[in-house]
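Contributing new records

If you add data, match the layout below exactly. Sequence lines come first and carry their own label; structure lines follow with theirs. Keep one chain per record. Anything else will be rejected by the validation script.
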Amino acid sequence: MTDTRRRVKVYTLNEDRQWDDRGTGHVSSGYVERLKGTSLLVRAESDGSLLLESKINPNTAYQKQQDTLIVWSEAENYDLALSFQEKAGCDEIWEKICQVQGKDPSVDITQDVVDESEEERFDDMSSPGLELPPCELNRLEDLAELVASSLPSPLRREKLALAVENEGYIRKLLELFRVCEDLENREGLHHLYEIMKGIFLLNRTALFEVMFSDECIMDVIGCLEFDPALPQPRRHREFLTKTARFKEVIPISDPELRQKIHQTYRVQYIQDMVLPTPSVFEENMLSTLHSFIFFNKVEIVGMLQDDEKFLTDLFAQLTDEATDDDKRHELVNFLKEFCAFSQTLQPQNRDAFFKTLSNMGILPALEVILGMDDVQVRGAATDIFSYLVEYNPSMVREFVMQESQQNDDDILLINLIIEHMICDTDPELGGAVQLMGLLRTLVDPENMLATANKTEKTEFLSFFYKHCMHVLSAPLLANTTEEKPSKDDFQTSQLLALILELLTFCVEHHTYHIKNYIINKDILRRVLVLTASRHAFLALCALRFMRRIIGLKDEFYNRYIMRNFLFEPVIKAFLNNGSRYNLMNSAIIEMFEYVRVEDVKSLTAHIIENYWKALEDVDYVQTFKGLKLRYEQQRERQDNPKLDSMRSILRNHRFRRDARTLEDEEEMWFNADEDDLEDGEAVVPPSDKMKSEEDLMEPISKFMERKKLKDSEEKEVLGKSNLSGRQNPSFKLSFSGSTKTSLSSPPSSASLNPGSPGSPGSPGSPGSGARSSPSTTTVTTKGGLVGLVDYPDDDDDEEEEEEEEDGESKEDPLPPSKKSKLSS
């Protein structure tokens, strides 16, 4: 066939809610005698075999999507879709479907529109509900068709639900089911399956109450065993009565509670196993079933919570040494499921639930369980502990601080958690990761309370660093006694990485506690031993730990690093990494770049004075040369305090110089010997001939931002060779400790175009008036930078300010001959 308009792919929806491709073919429509109606036919393009034969049912909801897709649900309980190659073919078939159903082809869902007018709808609502056919064997087919036709329309669905509810129809249907099953009437059983499935989709709580009662629920499940799409019925009732067994870990004396547990299990089974996977049109039709299960669970938790005898027996048996291992395993699993049920509670009910468990002694019981050898029991206990920590970490912290007054450190609950994390036998350390997350929650100051009488943060962190931190850091200290890690296998490295992650969190969030611990125990030196690990992830964890410490810019830490020469292992790791461009290389360079950018003076001096020889040849980044420049600038300021004091004055007292003085100074600038400037001399006014303190204190609001000056200085020094003129140059001088000063200026005064756009002094510039000299400028400094900065050309402001300054100034401006040069 060559007609691509009708070329389609056929899809069916499987039980996992995924679309399966059934093949490619060509679709047509026509009357099929066997099906007694107009049908859709798809024949495979490969061999002409029939891929699909589907009758266009007047009551089936067809949906058109994305112009080339038609989706619908078949009576055999599976969803179908035709994906067309061309929109025209999709439109043709859609018109045929709408013609059969008597719908307008402009709609996208054939059964979505209720055809009744407002008056008819009002009449229908005021009229009595649907009249159901008598509940007899020979009328089951009529009833099944009535149910199927009512589901697409919300109005008819409501009427059908009221009719079934009012006439007690469900019990009559279940009596018919027993008759059909005795007679092995397969056709009747198939109709009952369709009817019962339709009643579920009515989504009515009142109907569910009847269907899930003790006398009806097993027959309801029986009806759902006879799916017409399956060759043999399923055996759900056999599983529920013979295979599934109800275990009473602690005897339940309340019959209502026992019945509710049975009912919830069976309804959950119906939802998960018995009911077919909802189609795309039925997904929202089972919301009431979900709610029924949810509220049952809430009731079960509430009834168990109120049964004090039950909970008392539960915790007594959990902690009793005489309880055998199997029994304890069942008790812990019950408690775990009990806590999982509590997640469905509203916040206020959950508060009461955990308060009840706390009063019954759940934390001491968990402490006993976690001390046992059974791995499965310990795993379930860890899950229970995680529920408690996520719900209320303060409750757990208060308990462990109270028990520390009575017990040794070894048997404290937190230390047991840390030991289980350290001793996790799982090669992937799944349990250790979970426990580390719980510890992180417990030591997180963000969820600690502060009251008028006490601060939980101070008390708990003092307790933690005194009683628990040595247990947490023990594997780290044991493995870093030499220059390389003692054990460098994958599992040990993973564990040390977890410990380092928690310590890094402490560095960021715990102030003096972790600082005292690191400095007193020399933790950082031990951590940096791990940079020699053959596992890159562990070495990077060690670098991250040091980077967080440096990022605090705390001089206590800095002095500790310098005193112990702790950059040495970092630089050794950098050199051993060689020329490889990897994460290790980038992480180390970023650390030094941070020191340079943030201008951490003590660390800069320490690095250059001790490690410059090892780093001076690294030129593929400018980080280390930039550090050297920072160091030389520091030395220069120390060697020339007068220069530093002048910079301090300029930095602290922003000012605007007299216009005439600045014009003279700029003339001197352009007349200065260019060679002298390049030799490192900069033209600046001497500090002892500046204006008075009152003039200096006048604020200026139009300076360039300080950061721009700083960035400009660094770019000029590191890109020193680029001295070419630009269209609108700005002139900046940078002082450094080197013999040459970097200068960014035009090659000569002639290279400056006085008439360039944007130059305030150019004839065509607004506000320039009759002046031919450059506009008013000012000198500022920041971190060793002296800059001549052009002001924006604002006519009115400039003229007003000049008049004010001329009126205020009582001194003559300094003549150009009095200006001096300061060499670097």
